[in-house]
Write a structure and sequence with these properties.
Length: 136
């Protein structure tokens, strides 16, 4: 098993609310680049606060030049197929601002294995948790 060393690079990126981000650089001896950047996300439950998170992600993107992985609960839908309602009414749609942020930062959805949904309530299931990376 390899050693992974965490170095805090948060210098102001770690915000408690309204969009929560915990980030840092991690050193690993795997691959050509020994450093990569990890950002853990917990997005606001309130849609009105989502733009703070998208702005924080863009700010981190502008400050780093490393392989980058973002993981966590964004509390927003990246794609419309990530929501399924067992009733006929489904007013949940993908978040265009989230899509624009992912595109602006050159990020790719890392996909999933198994059950595609990470949240449920009554007749609704969503994929709110995901992993994104700037590498394919």
């Amino acid at each position: 098993m390899e050693d992974v060393v965490a170095h805090s690079l948060s210098d102001g990126h770690g915000v408690a609310c309204p969009g929560s981000i915990l980030d840092g650089a991690y050193e690993s001896q795997v691959g050509a680049s020994p450093y990569w950047f990890l950002t853990a996300i917990y997005g606001s439950l309130q849609r009105i606060n989502w733009n703070y998170l998208w702005d924080d992600i863009r700010s981190i993107y502008n400050d780093i030049n490393l392989p980058w992985c973002l993981i966590g609960d964004f509390n927003a839908l990246l794609h419309e197929h990530e929501c399924h309602s067992r009733s006929n009414s489904n007013n949940r749609i993908a978040c265009p601002d989230f899509q624009n942020c992912v595109s602006d930062c050159g990020l790719y959805d890392l996909g999933y294995s198994g059950w595609p949904f990470t949240w449920n309530r009554e007749n609704l299931v969503d994929r709110l948790d995901c992993g994104l990376s700037n590498l394919d």
